[in-house]
Amino acid sequence: MNLLYPKAEDTLSVVLKLPGETCNINCHYCYEKRKPYPGSSSLTAEMLEQFLTLMGERPLSVMLHGGEPLLVGQHRMLSLIRVLMQHPAPVSYSIQTNGTLLNARWLDFFDEHCPSLDIGISLDGTAAGNAHRVDYRGKLTYDRVVRALDLLASRNRACGVIVVVTKLLLGQADAVVDEMLNHPAIRNVKLSPCLDYKVTSKDHRGISGRQIRALNPSDAVQPGWATAPGEYSQFLQEIFVSWRDKKAYHHFLLEPFVSIVRALSGRPTGFTHFDYRKDPFVVTLYPDGRIGSCDELTMPEALLGTVDAGISVQDLIDQAHDRQYFRKLGMLLRDCEGCRVANICRGGSLPDRVRYEQDTDHTAYCRSRIDIIESVRDLAKRD
Questions:
Q1: Residue 319 pLDDT > 80, yes or no?
Q2: Is the pLDDT of residue 322 over 90?
């Protein structure tokens, strides 16, 4: 299996880090706040124009991201949306927000200026499971997120939810499904693994900083919030059964199961964890003009180039073939040759695999993938 790079005519997935790492909350496990940032800044319309010029006329799938993207305010958000609307090829839009700032004014703004925008909310399953998502005073954010979900439902707006599966959710599969069913705005749910292994957190001040240090001391192998691959796989098997038995599929789709079923039938997916198109297929623009690969990969290792260099984004992607870091990512996929689920797993998540290379049992990640794929395949056959 080889690392596939996008062709010039392919729709490119683009993540725009509107305020960089700046956020109004301080999640214990936040990967964005582990990256080197030269300073606090927000993406400007001029920087975005330069970036889109380097894109040429290719179609784009754009995610407005951060940090917390709503922190840029409506005036700057509108200037960025107007630049995106001038792109000569089709552009689809989505936003990933922690939900705590989403209010009627923001929904009115999106209805007027970007009605096709897909909204994603971050909520880790249940009130108890969401306890790693705190503000800088260490206070829980769950109630504020639920208010946003209720507001969306009151306006007949649908949204997706990303659930980061930490240790707090283990054994709570039924409760997670029930929580998602309680919010009629939720139409799709993505269960994201938290497979952190030997990660270094920044030294944040205040209560939340102390919480992070307690959960992830400097000598920790696995942070207190992280799950092992086998634990994540077991949770997925449990929640798949709950989702099926409660007939929750009538209310919301659940990833990675939609992607697993598509892969079982030989179809492509939109989820890089179960697709041949891997993380270099995602391009990230930072406020200071850096252009990186998938934002889950570490920086500066995943740096492709900068806007000021004036090189097309396709050339930057093509040049990544010869970079040591990207050759390393490609080598990980070659280890998949001969695996009995390779055509379904399709190599898994490269950021997670890079982290677990350090583990003495580096096959644990692959074993967990085999377990969940075979479990879903068996249950699907039985039904």
A1: yes
A2: no
> Cα–Cα distance between 351 and 196 in angstroms, integer?
10
Q: Which residue has the higher pLDDT, 50 or 360?
A: 50
Return the half-sphere exposure (C-beta side, CA atoms, 13 A cut-off) of residue 282. 22
Q: How many domains does the chain have?
A: 1
Q: For the chain, how far is it from start to end, CA to CA, in angstroms?
A: 31
What's the rounded Cα separation, in Å, for the pair 199 and 124? Answer: 20
Which residues, at least 6 apart from 235, have a Cβ–Cβ distance to it below 8 Å?
A: 165, 169, 170, 171, 173, 191, 227
Q: How confident is the model at residue 39 (pLDDT cuts 50, 70, 90)?
A: confident
Mean pLDDT of 270-277: 90
Nearest to 273 by CA among 331, 208, 333: 333
Q: Is residue 27 part of a domain?
A: yes
**Domain of 373?**
12-382
Q: Residue 156 belongs to a domain with what CATH number?
A: 3.20.20.70
Query: DSSP character for 140?
Result: B
pTM: 0.95
What is the reported pLDDT for 383? Answer: 67
Angstrom distance (rounded) from CA 336 to CA 349: 12
Residue type, 362: H
Q: What are phi and psi of 17, to 5 degrees?
A: -85, 80
